[in-house]
Amino acid sequence: MKKQKAFETFIHGIFLILGLITVGCVLLITLYLVVAGIPAIRKIGLGDFLFNPRWASTASEPSYGILPFILTSIYGTAGAILIGVPIGFLTSVYLAKLAPAKVRTVVSGAVSLLAGIPSVVYGLVGMMVLVPGIRSLFRIPDGASLLAAIIVLAIMILPSIINVSITALEAVPKEYEDASLALGAAPVETYFRVSVPAAKSGIAAAVVLGVGRAIGEAMAVMMVSGNAPNLPELFGSVRFLTTAVASEMSYSGGLQRQALFSIALVLFLFIMLINAVLNFFLKRSKE
Amino acid sequence: MRKFLGLMTAAVLAVSALAGCSAQQKGGTVSTDGSTSMEEVIGVLGEAFQEKYSGMTFTYNPTGSGSGIQAVREGRCDIGLSSRSLKEEEKADGLSETVLANDGIAVIVNPKNAVNDLDIETIAKIYKGEITDWSEVGGTDAEIVVIGREAGSGTRDGFESITGTEDACKYRQELTSTGDVITTVSQNPDAIGYASLAALNAQIKALSVGGVSPSEETVKDGSYVIQRPFVLVTKDGVELSDAAQKFFDFATSDEAAPFISQAGAVPVK
Questions:
Q1: Which value does ipTM take for this structure?
Q2: Of A93, B86, B113, B171, whose Cβ has the fewest other Cβ atoms within 10 Å?
Q3: CA proximity to B147, closest of B118, B125, B178
Q4: Could you give the CA distance from residue A194 to residue A176 in angstroms, rounded to a whole number?
Q5: Over the stretch B186-213, which tens digit does the pLDDT of each residue have?
């Protein structure tokens, strides 16, 4: 009996250590980003860093303003949500409530497959198909633009939105729907008036998850957005927070490199904020 | 049985580790780090070097000129590779350069583009955004799409300093590799870009500059003006390892010249 208890304690200890590894990683990354990101912000000045619209890191008189990147990241994510959420939401309602079993199997499989495609492949397809397509469709000189990035991001966030929304919709107690149907409501009416409102916190969490995915994506948008540090324009070449770090890191040095870490810190704060919002919604959906 | 297998594996591992050790003592390793533009040249030289001195290991880490110079300074590699001359402050910091070869930077357009020749002033004006339409330089009526490399790239640094467009370029796209520039220009009939002479292929068309088309001869005799040096960077006062010294001597010898030409750059010897 005593032996068994000791064994239990031992196993608990192992699990505790394994759990702490994750926590340790998060703390380490946070600490590193803060330590690496603060010096450049101090040198440049927080206001100048965040609100100066000019980024010219290797100019003879360098300027380190990341306003274009912040705005691009916000606009790009907002655009992706605007396109991706309606498609993803309606797909999830259809799959969770309306679709015949066979259709559901096929479509869910396709959605999972979409989630498994590496982002560099999205970027490559975007570069070879989407960018020339936008160029000829809108008769603009070059198709690499914010629009191309938004479309790629909208497709990339679909799987997270669909999967999380389906889970939320399926968690709605069947009695709610039965009651609505018994009162004479049509099935579609029931789904949108009863099931969706009951699952709204979960669906909101899905949207926030999509936002997190969109704002953190680097590779795919780097290949289709043109990467010039302009203030965002739908058909203009733009650079995101993520791509600003990724595109210059390999050749950087000195204050430029420190500034890239500061950009990473800003991005990290954005993502922390999104996570906090996500937690808020998830907690509410549990209550 | 399992124990026996374990023992055998351990024995084999030990022997191979020893073998690895002795090979290293006999051969040695040369590590290089730096310019991505020098990839082809250094790749061919590395292969030829390993063929000549069997048992030597040659490594190349394509990180970019700035990182390569930094790596030598910190002693993380034997020889740094830079596709620009060292700056005064870098020389003052105890680094020295040996020019290995010269590389022409070709100005490239889509093969469908009617323009074949531009002078260097016109190219500078296009990159600075003073000329924005192909019709102004004898092409079709279409907006020029200016493609370049990201800040810090050796090719961009070389191109901008030669054309006098530092900090003034109005890029439509800033791409992170030579391959991306070539792909983008090959996809867009109105695009103009720049890339290392060594990387040219049939997907794109290289413009002649002031009547001189980019080639090994015109880079060597200096008549093609958009060119830059490929430099081996070493640290003063730090003796190269035996292997690294052998590679350095080999790369700067007459013997290496044909390999450098083969890779599309122009040897100094």
A1: 0.75
A2: B86
A3: B178
A4: 7
A5: 989 999 999 988 788 889 999 999 999 9
The whole-number pLDDT of residue A214 equals 94
Q: Give domain A67-252+264-286's CATH architecture.
A: Orthogonal Bundle (1.10)
- Report chain B residues whose CB lies below 8 A from the CB of A223: 180
What CA–CA distance (Å, rounded) separates A213 from A78? Answer: 12
| Tens of pLDDT, residues B127-174 | 999 999 999 998 889 999 999 998 877 788 889 888 988 888 889 999
What pLDDT was estimated at residue A148? Answer: 95
Question: And the tokens for B65?
Answer: 């000129």
Mean pLDDT of all residues in B3-23? 47
Of A60, A127, A251, the CB nearest to B166: A60
Place of tokens 């239990």: A8
A226: which chain B residues are within 8 Å (Cβ-Cβ)?
A: 172-174
Give the whole-angstrom CA distance, residue A242 versus residue A227: 11
Q: Please give the Cα distance from B249 to A84 (Å, whole number).
A: 59
Q: Which DSSP letter does residue B268 get?
A: -
State the count of interchain CB pairs (< 8 A) between A and B: 86
pLDDT given for residue A23 in this prediction: 94
The nearest CA of chain B is from the CA of A176 a distance in Å of 54
Give B171 to chain A, closest Cα distance, Å: 6
Paired tokens of A78 = 């907002």
Say whether A58 and B64 touch across the interface (CB within 8 A): no
Chain A residues lying within 8 Å of B65, measured CB to CB: 251
Helix (H/G/I), strand (E/B), else coil: B169 = coil
pTM greater than the 0.80 cutoff: no
